[in-house]
Amino acid sequence: MSRVKNHPDFWENVEKTDTCWLWTGSQNYDGYGNFYGKRTHRLAYELTYGRIPKGFYICHTCDRPRCVKPEHLFLGSPSDNSIDAEKKGRRVHIVINSEAKKRYKKPRIKALIDANVRHQRKHLTNN
Prior knowledge:
The protein is an alpha+beta fold. It has two domains: about 1-85, no CATH class; about 95-125, no CATH class. It is built from five helices and six strands; from the N terminus they run αββββαββααα. Strands 1-2 form a two-stranded antiparallel ribbon. The longest helix has 20 residues, at about 105-125. The chain starts with a helix and ends with a helix. The model has no long low-confidence stretch (mean pLDDT about 80).
């Protein structure tokens, strides 16, 4: 962290727009900025607010992976991140049919598939 924290080029790689501060340096395959092997939104949070507790995520209010504006970043648990994604319509639901269920013999996998199917049926009937 010290190598990155004290690196003078971090904020120089940011384009400040009217809404977001966009990372202009390298990006990962999923669109998140990358600076010395660290995701830039996490680094921006740490530089501004301090250490991120183990197991926590840094979420975006703006939903833009390249955004590093500290005011757009918030600390969240894995559950918070999932809820946030669901609210914003970024959650992908996988529907598994009964033929696919027959291929899985392990009880844990079958239980997960059954739970997913129940969730899908409930979600589809409520919309």
